Amino acid sequence: MTAPIAPSLTALAAQNRAASPVVDLRTRGGAAERHRILHVFRAPVGGLFRHVVDLTRLQAEAGHAVGLVCDASTGGERAARTLAELAPHLALGVTRIPMRRNPHASDLAALRAVRKQALAVGADVLHGHGAKGGVFARLAPLGRAGRGVIRAYTPHGGSYNYRPGTPLHRVYMAAERVMARATDLFLFESEYVASRHAAYAGGSPRLERIVHNGIGEAEFLPVGTSEDPFDLVYVGELREAKGLPVLLRALARIRGQGRNLRLLMVGSGPDTESLAAMAENLGLRDAIAFEPPQAIRPVLGRGRVMVVPSLAESLPYVVLEAAAAAQPLVATNVGGIPEIFGALSGSLVPPGDCEALGQAIVRILDEEPALREGRARALSDSLRTRFSMNRMATDVLCGYAAAFRAKRVAAASAAT
Prior knowledge:
alpha/beta; Rossmann fold; 2 domains; 16 helices
């Protein structure tokens, strides 16, 4: 069957808004309390960026004033286009400043810039996303003006997943322990990351919530399949941590057994050249097509099965989006992926095992179509209530409310 034309991200957002509007649940004295929220994060790319974009739109529609602070040099034209589309929802604007991925002396200048913007717009919520955004949002010095401000932090894997057990990981976790004292609210996107925080950073956060990433009703629409689909499709960053060398070796083994499978890889990243060279060395030149980052839904229709071979994850949107669209999936048993699969998590593959990955790929491709599609539909149906975009937005607002209440109680206690 020929794939229908997939809606654009903007059209999907409009459909999601129409399907289920978000109402601000934070009230006091019978009147809705509006906030001035500044989301701070480094890279306007990938699932973290999508999470911030969704929250921004829904919080603005609930009556809050929202602004963003992010890196000036990453994301390219795609990020610039998304930010331009989001502009009507950004009462506090967008501030783009230099931010390095790893710790750097320039972080002090970025910290001062976050402070300046927070004071200029009168933010009363500083919400950091990801390791770098979490540092800037929690440590920006606001002086007396910061007494009524809450500092919220949403980890997205990042430092928690970075080579556990190594000296650098221990340094990162020691920093997280220190910054926990400046954190009014932890908003963990998965039970997995919450458990990593408890295991490695230790201590009891002041206040925490599990707020799963959410998707909209429009993302459950079928995408169809193109007339000449690839056997496999991968969408995401081109990095070794995503398990792509394992996928390439698994594909080479399968093709060595006489199965001429084809793989479409969509994305970009720091290991693009080394992965292309590896594919060449494995004799996969004609088996793989590399394409730049693009919207996921049109890509899904170009493959029979999506593969997610990651070695570490938090709660990846790419899995949520594919599962919602009832795309057959082969994924690894890492991070929050079992939370997405729920009762179907027994089908997940051990990470780093190219033989197990290859067997899972062959098994799902050789299944009766009705069985494969039925399981994909069952997973899609299970996501509707567990990973709702509106549930995500209202849970975040409720988290803010609890943090403000705790701050008022603490201030009242200190005054007596």
